[in-house]
């Protein structure tokens, strides 16, 4: 997402995009992810002025590493709703 499009959407009140669909720092597509709020606050302290509070994992990692001097490694986890859906489907197939 080009940054000028983000600025235009912000000025118009986000008529065509949901604000969490993209990172407000780099403009790339954002995915569903979670981080503990204490870690978020540490990273957010390093954010550039004018940046909204939606960050992609990469921008979060850059800011958090800058704030703490530590490195991040990521762990991929399935969304529990997806996992349960797959399990139910498998159980239904087994019971046929």
What does this structure look like?
With 96 residues, the chain is mostly helical. The protein has one domain. It has helices at residues 3-12, 37-44, 57-68, 80-94. Helix 2 (37-44) crosses helix 3. The radius of gyration is 18 Å and the shape is flat. The N and C termini lie far apart (46 Å). 11% of the residues are buried. The mean pLDDT is 84.
Write the topology of this structure.
Blueprint: H1 3-12, H2 37-44, H3 57-68, H4 80-94
Helix pairs in contact: 2-3
Give the gist of this structure.
With 96 residues, the chain is mainly alpha-helical. The protein contains four helices and no strands.
Number of helices, where a helix is a run of at least 4 consecutive DSSP H or I residues: 4
Distance between the termini: 46 Å
- Assess the beta-strand content as a share of residues: under 5%
Q: SS-based structural class?
A: mainly alpha
What is the molecular shape?
flat
How many β-strand runs? 0
Strand count, sense and barrel status of the largest sheet are: none
In round numbers, the mean pLDDT is 84
Rg, Å, rounded:
18 Å
Helix content range: 40-55%
């Amino acid at each position: 997402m080009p940054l000028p499009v983000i600025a235009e959407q912000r000025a118009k009140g986000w008529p065509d995009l949901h604000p969490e669909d993209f990172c407000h720092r780099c403009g790339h597509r954002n995915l569903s992810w979670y981080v503990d709020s204490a870690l978020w606050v540490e990273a957010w302290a390093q954010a550039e002025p004018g940046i909204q509070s939606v960050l992609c994992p990469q921008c979060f990692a850059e800011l958090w590493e800058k704030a703490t001097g530590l490195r991040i490694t990521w762990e991929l986890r399935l969304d529990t709703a997806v996992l349960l859906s797959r399990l139910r489907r498998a159980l239904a197939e087994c019971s046929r």
